[in-house]
């Protein structure tokens, strides 16, 4: 499937493109297997916000640049270990951060579908990124795994609890406790990804899935996404689901009557609306 991407904005650590209702965010630090530093995350955050605010965009593809100089691929190798100090990942301002957690929450609350396209390594915090995306399409060369207990970190948030939702608690504990690497086929078998395709067809398959989703009702998809997340996300998840209920109410005559009555300084006539069974 061919698509003509247009660069939406120039960044240092990512590429950001749009075409036909689809946004594509590509992590572009091939010398680090696309590991992220605070700036990478800030840039991704900004691009995701742009995609959220653009009413033309319904689906965001998240992927990693590749192949690299040695022919290998990576979706993302997690946090950049070379700049991690005692309190997080240190950016050019000298401040240590774990801002990828903000990005995780943004992806989950984005009222649009986010599809991870994984070629090569999805490791550590990079693995968590694909886990929290709505769908994952894996290339046949994809390799999945957590490394935290091996390299002195862990993600006890969505990176473990939501992973357990996907693959079950026993498998999630195996993934974190043993820090093994899993093939694309193994990932498919355990419900960690939606499908596996040859690496040269990864983007085309992602575009195909996106175009299929774009034929569907935006409001239905929006409400479904928040409904899928609500119980896991607690009060914040319920807030999001309720926000969608309010949005739908605003689009309704009954809600409009209340607002119009206030503006026209008259009592509202809600008796015209039924108390539905
Ligand atoms: C990905 C791996 C398996 C690839 O192996 P391969 O193909 O043999 O390549 P390498 O030679 O190892 O790598 C090529 C070059 O890329 C550099 N590089 C790779 N990964 C990273 C990285 N994560 N950080 C910095 N540099 C990286 C290599 O150093 C090499 O460079 P040169 O050629 O100059 O030597 C393999 O590379 C690998 O295992 N990488 C490390 C994976 C890893 O452990 N990632 C970090 C895990 N932790 C997190 O991601 C934490 C995430 C986080 O932010 C967080 C979130 C929630 C709560 C807590 C945290 C937290 O940080 O604690």
UniProtKB/TrEMBL annotation:
Signal peptide: none annotated. The keyword Ribosomal protein does not apply. The gene is menB. The lineage of its organism: Bacteria, Bacillati, Cyanobacteriota, Cyanophyceae, Oscillatoriophycideae. It is an enzyme of class 4 (lyase). This is 1,4-dihydroxy-2-naphthoyl-CoA synthase. Its EC number is 4.1.3.36. It holds the Pfam family ECH_1. It comes from Lyngbya confervoides BDU141951. Converts o-succinylbenzoyl-CoA (OSB-CoA) to 1,4-dihydroxy-2-naphthoyl-CoA (DHNA-CoA).
């Amino acid at each position: 499937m061919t698509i003509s991407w247009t660069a939406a904005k120039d960044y240092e650590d990512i590429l950001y493109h749009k075409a036909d209702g689809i946004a594509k965010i590509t992590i572009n630090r091939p010398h680090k297997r696309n590991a992220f530093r605070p700036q990478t995350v800030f840039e991704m955050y900004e691009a995701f916000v742009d995609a959220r605010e653009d009413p033309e965009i319904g689906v965001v593809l998240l992927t990693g640049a590749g192949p690299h100089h040695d022919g290998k691929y990576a979706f993302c190798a997690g946090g950049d270990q070379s700049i991690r100090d005692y309190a997080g990942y240190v950016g050019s301002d000298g401040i240590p951060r774990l801002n990828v957690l903000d990005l995780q929450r943004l992806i989950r609350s984005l009222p649009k579908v986010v599809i991870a396209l994984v070629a090569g390594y999805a490791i550590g915090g990079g693995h968590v990124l694909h886990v929290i995306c709505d769908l994952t399409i894996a290339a046949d060369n994809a390799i999945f795994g957590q490394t935290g207990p091996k390299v002195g970190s862990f993600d006890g948030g969505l990176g473990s609890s939501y992973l357990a939702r996907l693959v079950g608690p026993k498998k999630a504990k195996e993934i974190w406790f043993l820090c093994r690497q899993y093939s694309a086929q193994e990932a498919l078998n355990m419900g960690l990804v939606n499908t596996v395709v040859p690496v040269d067809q990864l983007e085309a398959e992602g575009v195909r899935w996106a175009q299929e989703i774009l034929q569907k009702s935006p409001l239905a998809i929006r409400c479904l996404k928040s409904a899928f997340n609500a119980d896991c996300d607690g009060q914040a998840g319920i807030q999001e689901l309720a926000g969608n209920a309010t949005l739908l109410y605003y689009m309704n005559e009954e809600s409009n009557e209340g607002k119009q009555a206030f503006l026209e300084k008259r009592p509202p006539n809600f008796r015209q609306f039924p108390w539905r069974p």
